[in-house]
Amino acid sequence: MSTEDRTSWALLALLAVAQFMVVLDITIVNVALPSIGAGLGFAGADLQWVVTAYILCSGGLLLVGGRAADMVGRRRTFLAGLGVFTAASLACGLAPSPGFLIAARAVQGCGAALLTPSALAIVTSTYTGAQRVTALSLWGAIASGGVGVGVLLGGILTSALSWHWVFLVNVPVGLAAAVLVPRVVPALPGRGGRSLDLPGAVTAVSGLAVLVYALSGAPDHGWGSARTLALLALSAALLASFALLERTAREPLVAPSTWRNGSLVSGSVMMLGATGIMAGAFFLNSLHLQDALGFSALEAGLAFLPFVGAILAGVHVSSRVIGSLGSRVPIVAGMVLVTAGSLLFAVAHDSYGELLPGFLVLGLGVGLAFPAISITALSDVPHESSGTGSGVMSTFHEVGAALGVAALSAIAFGSDYRAAAIGAAIAGAALTVLAAAFVPAVRPAPGAHAMMH
After folding, report:
1. Are residues 274 and 240 in the same domain?
2. What pTM, to 2 d.p., does this model score?
């Protein structure tokens, strides 16, 4: 292998390590939530903000991060994102209060929104031919691998050290990566001259944050209270303002024509719903295993491994059958299993033995659905718009996770675990009907690959 080849794979290794930190921070925190809540004195209903603040900012600003990479340069944007993410990780680990931690998590999400699209842009612009196929395959594996490592590493760090280390572990990794970036990552200058459309991005994220705030406070104040209704109205106004800004902006975050792509819209909606149920299941069961069943953080991390394994098994099966059956069949089948898994949680959750069938069925359903949803969403996106299409789907993925955690935690803290599981089952049933009625049946070309989020 030539020196150039060795340098290029070193580049992939560096970018993959940085991206792995971003993916890891979505699930590594879940297992530590009870310890974080006890250590900082969180109110139960506010604990979900440790997860949603990060996901909302990382997902809501993802398109801005991609555009920044094009404007000011990919290496510069990647280094900025890495610096913000690492500094915010340090702040999270040293947080003295709930408000400080939530704010630091939001900043950490902003760093992730700069880091992720610029890193992927460096990969796609640096590698060609067979190397690009290998690089993108490994890149896709980071997401699914990060889920499993996150729940296990979160348990190990919390049990062996403290919850602080689920954040502090990023600091030495981030610093080492920052030192290597100038030596390994090519400059890749930006095009310049384009608008970031920050008003649109800020309006969208604000509208979603207000929506999550309304949902999280509804159990305490009442779903029909003046506070809840006013916040929902404000959220609707902000999101409507975002739509208006996008229609009138000279360079909107997403071109209006994008929303006329039926396969992209239907696939993205399915991605939002499926991710919401999966993320909500991680959040609720992390708390349930430790608070109700008395598991340690490490035991809870180990308890999630069958769930992660079932997701990976579902991905494997889906990838094998999409070519012959089309994408609609595994999506519908997956959502049926997601609904069944949620119902299993509702009827049996008093021991880990009772939870395990729900983990396996729900995980298999999510794994079946995700690759097929990705293929459906991107099937009719022109090659020149593939970045925008991927960005839209990724944004729906992140926003779905935030809304899923917010909605199911609101139900759980307002009622109980069983009610939240029933809520997830109702959402799964609705998604099953929508998939059967509106999602097109796409048969990918031989050799096509789907992203696993």
Report:
1. no
2. 0.80
